[in-house]
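The passage that follows is intended for readers who have already worked through the single-chain material. We present the inputs for a multi-component assembly, then the predicted structure in tokenized form, and finally a short commentary. You are encouraged to pause after the input and sketch how you expect the pieces to fit together before reading on.
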Amino acid sequence: MLRYVIRRLISLGLSLLVASALIFSVVELVPGDPASFMLGTGAQPETVAALRQQMGLDLPLPLRYLHWLGGVLTGDLGHSFTYKTPVAGMILDRMQVSLPLALMALALAVLIALPIGMFAAARRGRTGDTAVMGATQIGIALPNFWFAMLLVLLFAVNLRWLPAGGFPGWSHPGAALKSLLLPAVALALPQAAILARVLRSALVETLGQDYIRTARAKGLTAGQVLSRHALRNALIPVLTILGMQFSFLLAGAIIIENVFYLPGLGRLIFQAITQRDLIVVQSAVLVLVAAVILVTFLVDLSYALVDPRLRK
Amino acid sequence: MRASLILGTLLSGLALAAALASFVWTPADVTQLAIAQKLLPPSGQHWLGTDHFGRDMLSMIMVGARTSIAVALVAVGIGMGFGVPLGLLAAARSGGWLDEVVMRGNDLVFAFPSLVIAILITAVLGPSALNAIIAIGIFNIPVFARVTRGGALPIWTLDYIRAAQVAGKGAGRISIQHILPNIANLLIVQGTIQFSLGILAEAGLSYVGLGAQPPTPSWGRMLAEAQTMVALAPHVAIIPGLAIVVTVLGLNLLGDGLRDALDPRLRRSP
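Having made your guess, compare it with the prediction:
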């Protein structure tokens, strides 16, 4: 197990390194010089040159990458050109919105998917199964930002139960949770539909196994077999999908945050792109990608814990 | 399961027909602004109502279908064009360094939230339908490479491949003449799925302003423009979304139906 963990750790480090190099070079490709962009068109060439030097833009590319990477490793992500504040602090601030949003959406997706998947599996092949699976097909086809607009139309504009957008900050926990609810539901529903389908097919497969027949034969009811034996064994594919969904949720949050004007990481990336605040774009994207790589790593590790055969 | 094939063909056929018909006929000119007739609800004259510039929504949806389908289709083409050869190569040299490089490269691309990178790419190259195609297409490459490799590996162990090798055929010829036809089913099904994901991705990108630019109508941008008017005229927000749902649903059902129809193991006696 230890050797497995070490091997996975090395590949985790490599992935993060390559990812950081990729992000750095893609952002470097952005046309236009940030220094002249910041100073405007009327700036003197000497002023631009001085700012370029101050920002380290006159250094060769590999050196700038190493410089940036060194900063990332020590928690110094540089300073935003437009906000004049440390990028690390900005990202931490925005994470306080994005992370709870993604986690809330993930929790909602699981809460919706579990009963639906179990219901469909218990009634496999019957009308209830067909109806529920048909509904999940529609759920998968929903663009989450459109679903978000419909939710706003119903719950914010017509019923006035929940806010249509904005975020009051965590000093008002109740109001903050309320303003994250609609975005989380919008993010969760399409993911719940996928999860429910995976859970159903995993359950249907386990329900065909011999030990399930044994459990039934020793007198357990169908419901007991489902919750005690089948569900536990169907969890591996569900776990895989959950790990992947975290990545979808983070990415989906970028668009949803824009629908609801939430000051999260996604909105930060957008604003930074339009303002050519490249250091912010680089670092924020790196944080997102690193989070996804880390989650994948943790999911891999948890498999190895659950299933010894995977440790090879 | 036949039902999903039929329904899927009908729904995705509807979107395709709308896109094709828009080349020769639309109820109204989508470049014609008529502010006096803005935000009209659906009526006999404008079946799906009008938008905030008084443009006929039905015509906008029809022309928008073109954008969505073209972007998603070309993105699938890019994914297949690069991904399938890569996957075939990886399978032919299974276990070798080339296989390792292709598969680790794939892992890496999978680690990136696709939308984040699509946003980065369009931010670097500038927002346009073409760059949306590139951004979505790049993410289709590892998907097709993986499906191709996964499908090809078991076939390489079969006797008739041995026979072909003994007969002196090289790995390239075997891949094209024997492997490819045998995994065509897999690729068609995956193509349908990626097509539907491409439509969703295009809608998302143009919703945030990184896809097709005005005046080219696109479903995602119609939704973005409708966002501020959703309370005034809900139909401008509901209709483009429905168009997306119908198309994506149709393609997903078609993919499911094709998988069942093409895979003899899943085919049950009626």
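Commentary: Chain A has a mean pLDDT of 84. Chain A touches chain B at residues 15, 18-19, 22-23, 26-27, 29-31, 137-138, 140-143, 145-147, 149-150, 152-153, 157, 247-248, 250-252, 254-255, 258-259, 269-270, 273, 281, 285, 288-289, 292-293, 296 (CB under 8 Å). How closely did your sketch match?
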